[in-house]
Amino acid sequence: MRNDLVDGLWLSISEVARLKGKSRQAVAKRVAALAADGLLDTRSGDNGTKLVNLAQYDRTIGDVGDAIKEGAAEARAEIEAAEPPTSPALRDHQARAAQYTADLKFLDLEERLGRLVPVSEVKEAGAKLGEMVVRAIDRLPTFAEAVASAAIKDGAQGARGELKEIARQLRAEIAEAMGVAVADAEPSAIEQNSN
């Protein structure tokens, strides 16, 4: 994942656990697993506290929107208990809700622009490209006669020249296969909408 949510709503694991009604240890374990899989960015806060972007966390676990509802209920309860009509809790919640919404919209835009791709799709594409390269390399033994013939005719220099030609052919095949794989990839939502 790209860490472009620099000014987003970053909360400590303890704050996320409180919002979600989960134990700190459970959230910390889940965050560590998601970060290890490349699905979630973290950063260090004051005193080495691990911070998580709430919108990215919610989007990754499929829980978008609940934090806003929970925060709104919490802010409403504080407002009802407070005397002044302009409660700092309301202002803080509104700022957090606005940042959360902005973070979600940023992530959605990045995904539509094709700059945010699920890790599973990247792994699948990488596996397909790896298979293409392996197939090309597996063809090397079929060139044995050509290399031996060139070596007999012109010695090491002939074998070297033949190997360079084989490498050129394999590079061209791999490039063509990659071009086909890219062309077969699903177009982004924006590309689909522009047609």
Quickly list its features.
single chain, about 200 residues, mainly alpha, 2 domains, three-stranded antiparallel sheet, 3 strands, elongated
Written overview of the protein:
This protein is mainly alpha-helical. It has two domains: about 10-110, no CATH class; about 120-195, no CATH class. Helices cover about 70% and strands about 5% of the residues. It is built from eight helices and three strands. The protein has helices at about 15-20, 25-35, 55-60, 65-80, 90-110, 120-140, 145-185, 190-195, and strands at about 10, 40-45, 50-55. Strands 1-3-2 form a three-stranded antiparallel beta sheet. A hairpin with a 5-residue loop joins β2 (about 40-45) and β3. α4 runs antiparallel to α5 and α6 (about 120-140) runs antiparallel to α7 (about 145-185). The protein is elongated. It starts with 9 loop residues before the first strand and ends with a helix.
Strand content of the residues, in percent? 5-15%
Q: Which runs of at least 5 residues are low in confidence (pLDDT < 50)?
A: 188-195
State the separation between the terminal residues, measured CA to CA.
Answer: 28 Å
Structural class: mainly alpha
Give the rounded overall mean pLDDT.
78
- Let me know the number of strands: 3
Bin the helical content. Answer: over 70%
The strand line-up of the biggest sheet is 1-3-2
Total domains = 2
Radius of gyration, in Å, reads: 27 Å
- Please tally the helical runs, counting DSSP H or I stretches of 4 or more residues: 8
Could you give a short account of the major beta sheet?
A: 3 strands, antiparallel
Overall geometry: elongated
String of helices and strands: EHHEEHHHHHH
